[in-house]
């Protein structure tokens, strides 16, 4: 069985490379952006013609949330056109596409036990706790919008897909919030971090394992069309970015003056969701996935540094 991974040099791509030895029956083909530029349809076709993958995991994306506000065309080209290209070549080759998306397709707001999408209009979501795959997406920035459009491009092109929405991904690989906090703490005595954006950190290694759980389950029954669709996956529990930072410092024994601040005190080009906790019932029920508490996973990751 051949599993092609695009975006192999990124955080998730490196996590997939790290766990690939656990799957001796799988022939992995890891392509970085120079070997497979997902915005280049001809290159996608050529790579698929060479390797004839049974599964394609798309770990390639434009992930610079703030920069996307001033580079919307580039973000759209990678996150939407790139997803569309992969869906088309997957369809031509009958390859199952595993695509990764984001909690930032939502801009939810949680108040008094009710989650709303569109925090200004206060339109209620179906969820009572955690955003469901069936909740109405409502991105607040270019990154989230282009990721949502990428999901939609896949849905309208090729039915044999799994779209896995995840959140706040960190790891020992590439760039992420955990590494930013550790870097800043090395230079500063104090830090201020927003405390009014609530979500769930996700360890990239665990995300990579879950993607492979889906691959392995589907590979045993390739004619089963019942499980395709959107799934949520993050670690268990919830926190603010401030609480995430506090846990990073506590578990690393770093003493720093860490201050909770409102988002208004940390202006950024892109607006981020106030609430983006993902409900994971569907992935647990369909694939028997067991989800670890975010703080335990963070401790496991920090222990590797
Ligand atoms: N990071 C996070 O917190 C979260 C990420 N996600 C999603 O998870 C997935 C993986 O993210 P993550 O690994 O963290 O992201 P990274 O930014 O670490 O990696 C993305 C990779 O995509 C590659 N890439 C960019 N453009 C292209 C292109 N045109 N063709 C091929 N490859 C390209 C980059 O290559 P190069 O290095 O050469 O530029 C980079 O290696 C993405 O879909 C992202 O949207 C979802 C929720 C949270
Ligand atoms: C560095 C820093 C950030 N912040 C805030 C800004 C922001 O609201 C929040 C997170 O910061 P970052 O910009 O590092 O994280 P950000 O790039 O917004 O992370 C997002 O990335 C994309 C790819 C996703 O899909 C999301 O799930 C999410 O992980 O913390 C502070 O308050 N203080 C700080 O010193």
UniProtKB/TrEMBL annotation:
GO terms for molecular function: dTDP-4-dehydrorhamnose reductase activity. Keywords: NADP, Oxidoreductase. The keyword Transcription does not apply. It catalyses: dTDP-beta-L-rhamnose + NADP(+) = dTDP-4-dehydro-beta-L-rhamnose + NADPH + H(+). Residues 1-304 form the RmlD-like substrate binding domain. It comes from the Bacteria. InterPro entries: dTDP_dehydrorham_reduct, NAD(P)-bd_dom_sf, RmlD-like-bd. Catalyzes the reduction of dTDP-6-deoxy-L-lyxo-4-hexulose to yield dTDP-L-rhamnose. This is dTDP-4-dehydrorhamnose reductase. It comes from Flavobacterium chuncheonense. The gene is rfbD.
């Amino acid at each position: 069985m051949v599993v092609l991974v695009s975006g192999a040099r990124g955080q998730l791509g490196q996590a997939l490379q790290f766990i690939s030895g656990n799957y001796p029956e799988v022939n992995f083909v890891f392509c970085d952006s120079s070997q497979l530029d997902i915005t280049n349809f001809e290159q996608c076709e050529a790579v698929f013609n060479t390797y004839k993958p049974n599964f394609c995991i798309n770990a390639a994306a434009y992930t610079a949330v703030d920069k996307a506000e001033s580079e919307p065309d580039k973000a759209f080209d990678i996150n939407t056109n790139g997803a569309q290209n992969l869906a088309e070549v997957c369809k031509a080759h009958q390859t199952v596409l595993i695509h990764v998306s984001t909690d930032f397709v939502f801009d939810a707001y949680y108040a008094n036990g009710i989650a709303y999408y569109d925090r200004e209009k206060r339109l209620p979501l179906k969820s009572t706790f955690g955003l469901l795959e069936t909740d109405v997406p409502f991105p607040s920035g270019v990154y989230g919008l282009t990721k949502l459009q990428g999901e939609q491009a896949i849905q309208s092109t090729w039915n044999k897909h799994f779209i896995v929405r995840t959140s706040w991904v960190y790891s020992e690989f590439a760039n992420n919030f955990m590494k930013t906090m550790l870097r800043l703490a090395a230079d500063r005595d104090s830090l201020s971090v927003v405390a009014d954006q609530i979500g769930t950190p996700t360890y990239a290694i665990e995300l990579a394992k879950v993607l492979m759980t889906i691959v392995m389950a589907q590979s045993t029954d390739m004619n089963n069309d019942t499980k395709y669709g959107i799934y949520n996956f993050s670690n268990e529990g919830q926190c603010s970015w401030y609480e995430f930072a506090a846990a990073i410092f506590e578990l690393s024994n770093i003493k720093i003056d860490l201050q909770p601040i409102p988002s208004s005190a940390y202006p950024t080009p892109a607006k981020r969701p106030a609430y983006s906790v993902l409900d994971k019932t569907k992935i647990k029920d369909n694939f028997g996935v067991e989800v670890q508490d975010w703080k335990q996973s963070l401790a496991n990751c920090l222990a590797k540094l």
